[in-house]
Design goal:
This protein folds into two domains: about 130 residues, Purple acid phosphatase-like, N-terminal (Immunoglobulin-like, Sandwich), CATH 2.60.40; about 250 residues, 4-Layer Sandwich (Purple Acid Phosphatase, chain A, domain 2). The C terminus is likely disordered. It is about 25% helix and about 25% strand. The chain has a four-stranded antiparallel beta sheet. It is built from eight helices and 18 strands. By secondary structure, it is an alpha+beta fold. The radius of gyration is 21 Å and the shape is globular.
Length: about 400
């Protein structure tokens, strides 16, 4: 049985590699790029690539749904210098070519290091519902990186998603300095931020379940407390791109995405790496911090709790940063979903929790209970938060009778 499984895996890999070659060939990309093309799935975290000559590689490849997950997808990656002609070629798993989409550029300058980070986002529209696609992300003078994805079903259908937060990174590289007078038998290396090898295990756990998408419930990599914030983000994407290039990882902003000096309220790195659906009431400072998308008959709403919590867990205290705009949007969004006969379930994704059984707590729950819970109670939504960092496998079977139990 093991030999048969191994043969099947090799056959699948060979079929996918042939499909990638056909896609590039159909799009007119030369044979040199075919040889250089990488295999799906990143390996161990690698040093940040800083190219003195030529172009940097396509790094941190990942996906995000658009507002309509059945027809919209965004392909994203990043680099440490600007690139030429960033684009995504889209095709089917048989290698047939459909279209090329130009990626838009976003950037930020990390206030701690002065390093400029460039991100590229290609929005794919008019996709077929519940369909599998093959794509290649590329820019001039760099090898293409490949991924696959499936669009969401339209209407009532069964699907799987996973959810956790507080992931961190699996990399170690900071040398531990012992207290004065203490001698270690060998150098000890620790993480530069908050993380552990388990951060890599959770990524592989998502891939084992092969969900349609993953909800990433805040405190993604703890870059705000790292010595090298850009490197921490880089390690994070090296780890998660193994999954996020093949299925959307849809984020919620947590307090540790607040990085001092990166934008007026500290979220500019987070806002640059991700391209999520647009939402009403946002300014340049709050862009992308709250949003919603529809999967089948499920409306997923992602909110940023630091707007309402009494907690100084980031690099700065930012409570009230939206001046009520996020709450007004959330109330309107919940009411619209409640009235929509095509929506059976509402899932709210956020970081801090409203209720906790922990014996030590930071008080963040008070603001959530004051501001969000009355809105949730009225709508009877299901909330997913980072109460634990355990992967939750949630099967949604949407049927008309669910509406009576909301």
């Amino acid at each position: 049985m093991g030999k048969l499984a191994a043969m099947t895996t090799r056959d699948n890999e060979l079929s996918l590699e042939l499909s990638r070659r056909r896609l590039l060939a159909a799009a007119g990309v030369g044979g040199g790029a075919l040889v250089a093309a990488s295999i799906i799935g990143a390996g161990e975290a690698a040093p940040i690539a800083r190219s003195e000559e030529g172009a940097p590689p396509v790094a941190g490849l990942h996906l995000q749904f658009g507002a309509d997950a059945s027809s919209q997808m965004v392909v994203s990656w990043h680099a440490l210098q600007p690139v030429r002609h960033p684009r995504v070629m889209l095709g089917r798993l048989d290698g047939s070519f459909e279209q090329t989409v130009v990626a838009r550029e976003a950037s930020y300058t990390d206030a701690k290091s002065g390093q400029v980070v460039y991100a590229y986002h290609a929005r794919l529209d008019e996709l077929r519902a519940d369909s599998a696609y093959l794509y290649a992300a590329m820019h001039d003078d760099a090898a293409p990186e490949f991924g696959t994805f499936r669009t969401a079903p339209r209407g009532r259908a069964r699907f799987t998603f996973t959810s956790f937060g507080d992931q961190g990174t699996p990399t170690v590289g900071k040398r531990y300095v012992p207290p004065a007078g203490v001698t270690l038998p060998a150098p000890l290396f620790v993480n530069d931020n908050l993380g552990s090898p388990a951060a890599g295990d959770t990524t592989l756990g998502v891939e084992r379940l092969r969900p349609l998408f993953h909800l990433l419930n805040g405190d993604l990599c703890y870059a705000n407390i790292a010595d090298d914030r850009v490197r921490t983000w880089w390690d994070y994407w090296e780890n998660n791109s193994r999954s996020a290039r093949n299925r959307p990882w849809m984020p919620a902003a947590g307090n540790h995405e607040n990085e001092l000096g990166n934008g007026p309220i500290g979220y500019q790195a987070y806002q640059t790496y991700f391209s999520v659906p647009e939402a009403d009431g946002q300014s340049d400072a709050t862009r992308g911090l709250w949003y919603a998308f529809t999967v089948g008959s499920v409306r997923v709403i992602s909110i940023a709790n630091d707007d309402v919590v009494y907690q100084d867990g980031g690099n700065s205290y930012v409570r009230g940063y939206s001046n009520g705009a996020q709450k007004a949007w959330l109330e309107k969004e919940l009411a619209a979903a409640r009235r929509d006969n095509n929506i059976d379930w509402i899932v709210a994704c956020m970081h801090q929790v409203a209720i906790s059984t922990a014996d030590k707590f930071n008080g963040a729950d008070l603001g959530i209970r004051q501001e969000w819970v009355p809105l949730f109670d009225h709508t009877a939504s299901i909330s997913w938060s980072a109460a634990t960092s355990t992967t939750m496998n949630a099967h949604i079977r949407s049927v008309a009778s669910n509406r009576t139990s909301r």
